[in-house]
Design goal:
Largest sheet: 6 strands, antiparallel, barrel
Number of helices: 0
Number of domains: 1
Strand order of the largest sheet: 1-2-3-6-5-4
Mean pLDDT: 87
Low-confidence stretches: none
Distance between the termini: 44 Å
Oligomer: single chain
Amino acid sequence: MIEQRKSKRFDLDLRVEVVRAGAERMSHVGRTRNISSGGVLFTASTRMEIGGPVEYIITLSSGSSGNVNLRCMGKVLRIEENVSPQVIDSPYMVAASLERYEFMRSNARVA
């Protein structure tokens, strides 16, 4: 099989919180599996509509100076069953595009 991805993926295990999927506000916490400049693959506890908008916050640890939050907006590209035996509370893997983003202070919340 020929690799057809446009950008390099980085295997990163970071906290991600889905704060909106479609018109529904939510607060579901999962973990990233990999990230590229065009998207992210993360675990989720709920199904989302393929093609629908999604807003998520990735927490980046910056060592002794605390955390930095990356607020991202994109679209749900793919949903898969999560077959990892370590992740019981996140039965889905969600691939989402990364269309827009902004850095936020760790104490800032989405309105």
